[in-house]
Design brief:
Blueprint lengths: L4 H8 L7 H49 L4 E5 L2 H14 L11 E3 L4 H10 L7 H7 L5 E5 L6 H13 L2 E7 L3 H8 L5 E5 L4 H25 L8
Parallel strand pairs: 1-2, 1-3, 3-4, 4-5
Helix pairs in contact: 2-8, 3-8
């Protein structure tokens, strides 16, 4: 017999149809799943920050030095990581903390006219590279976000930024992919990798990471007058 939409709904969403027993069973199962996901998320974050504390501090200090010298932050990513890139740029441009100054930051995923023009005329792999060539200056920072570390347009962006003398910071996941390899080979400055195959856990940790780095950058700028120094 062909199942109807109502049959499907009753099977998967019994709580919508007054089946209290199934609803309770489902709720209890989801309660356990919720707790497990929270424990996993906390565990991934704790392990990542413990193992990468020195690298996070070093990357934050490098960013603080660039801002001290009057440079800017360029941020990019794809999909969910594009929204993270937007979030990062907003955090630096519009700080909510009292006494924190606005710092120049541009999300390269924001300009849809530019992104689609380059994608259409040249190719999607160069949507960030073209903007870096136009907007980037020696001493600026490029921060790229990728859950896999293998986004070709980010890898090209890092290569271009490196040639132009920008500090490059990657946020990756899994084994870090090619982004991590670039860092190991010395062709990128920092790659902070969340070592889990779960895209959700990677993204959750990235959010915590860039909020913490934002705070560290401002702490360096406020408490280390010598940060940046001369040219």
């Amino acid at each position: 017999m062909t199942k109807t939409a109502d049959d499907f709904s009753r099977t998967f969403y019994p709580f919508l149809h007054g089946d209290e027993k199934q609803s309770r069973e489902l709720t209890e199962g989801l309660r356990f799943s919720l707790a497990e996901k929270v424990r996993e998320s906390v565990g991934v974050k704790s392990k990542f920050f413990e193992e990468n504390a020195d690298a996070i501090l070093a990357a934050s200090l490098a960013m603080a030095k660039a801002f001290r010298r009057g440079r800017k932050l360029l941020v990019c990513g794809n999909g969910g990581s594009a929204t993270d890139a937007q979030h990062i740029a907003v955090e630096f441009m519009h700080p909510i903390g009292v006494g924190r100054k606005a710092l120049p930051a541009i999300c390269l995923a924001n300009d849809m006219a530019m992104v689609t023009a380059v994608a259409n005329d040249v190719g999607f792999d160069d949507v960030f590279t073209r903007q870096i060539i136009a907007l980037g200056c020696e001493g600026d920072i490029l921060l790229g976000v990728s859950t896999s570390g293998n986004s070709e347009n980010l890898l090209r962006a890092f290569a271009t930024a490196r040639r132009m003398g920008l500090t490059t910071v990657g946020l990756a996941g899994g084994d870090g992919g090619k982004m991590s390899e670039m860092c190991a080979q010395g062709s990128s400055d920092f790659c902070l990798t969340v070592p889990t195959p779960s895209v959700h856990r990677i993204q959750e940790t990235h959010v915590a990471l860039y909020h913490i780095m934002w705070d560290l950058v401002h702490a360096f700028l406020q408490h280390e007058p010598s940060v940046g120094g001369g040219e």
